[in-house]
Amino acid sequence: MATSAAESPSAKRRRIDYGKDTALIDGLPDHISEICLSLVCRPSLLAAVCTRWRRLLYSPNFSPFSSLYALFVDSNSDPAPGHARVNPAIRFMCFDPVSAKWDPLPPPPPDPPLHRILYRHPSFISFNLPIQCVSAAGKLFLIAGSNRELSPAISHPLIFDPISSTWTYGPPIGAPRRWCAAGACGGVIYIASGMSSQFSSTVAKSIEKLDMTDQNRTNWEKLREMRDLRFSREAIDAVGWRRKLLMVNVKGDAIKEGAIYDVVNDDWESMPEEMMVGWRGPVAAMEEETLYSVDERKGTVRKYDEEKREWGDVVMVKGGEEMLKGAQQVTADAGKLCVVTVDGRIVVVDVVAEPAKIWTVEIPEGLEPVSVHVLPRMSRPDIC
């Protein structure tokens, strides 16, 4: 008793922080404490309280907070004058908002080797070959890319599960392809059109899905084919929106054609002209309910009003448009847009704020972002 009474405050703190049997919240069972702590909106606040709360954040038993995942390529692979272009290495990383730092994902399986996926080709001076990733059902999917022979580099998707921090193979794709439309709706992955090793009208009109919500279905399923071949010209996003997939076949200001796939009725329809005019850059759907577009030339953000069937400008803080010029890819989650720009930046737009706030995420030195995705945080055994 005398020893206990004489225990210093610092010793008590150490016992609370590092003892295995201390309660998360005094007077409450841990399972009740976990429910209470999960209601805190900012994980960084929990991490700042004590070591055990910080360990809890990364525990598989605790509701995971959202983190930013990115596919990077080495930006230091640009050739010297007179030398051929070098294919940069591909890297997957996760930005932890609690520690505010980038962590590498575990290495993917060696087959197919990532170095076979081409981002730059010596035959193309200023054109980067697309590498297509999709996020769905809390997982990241590497779907399509090209190899050195300009054939499909991926025959089956690579899938990363953040909760277990592991990579697995997906089932073989019925018709491997590149330069396709890839997207997700309701936890289901879709790939449509594109090219195989050589142009094939069958592949260019086909669409397949992989249902990640159905544990009994483990293979790709062929769906009703597209009405024409005009969606195999370049890699495009298939945007999941209100149980439909929205696809526009050309990027930029060129003349476009749009198609809508009804995932419930397995049917195709043309995209209304007033909806298609918003495709002046990358488009994403917030919670698959609200469409946002980023004009790659002007840097403006627009929101689609389905009742009025028109796009309206989102008012941003002064200088926001300049930061978004050259937008290449966008993802939307929790009231924010995460945008990859042509000059190698990741820009975040808070579209809930009025005017919309905007800031950049510092990226690792020597890396160039290709695409970004929002997924649950990785489990961290080193912290847990």
Automatic annotation (TrEMBL):
Classification via Gene3D superfamilies: Kelch-type beta propeller
Every FKB95-like N-terminal Kelch domain range: 117-363
Top-level taxon in the UniProt lineage: Eukaryota
Pfam families: Kelch_FKB95
Name of this chain's protein: FKB95-like N-terminal Kelch domain-containing protein
Species this chain originates from: Thlaspi arvense
Phylogenetic classification of the source organism: Eukaryota, Viridiplantae, Streptophyta, Embryophyta, Tracheophyta
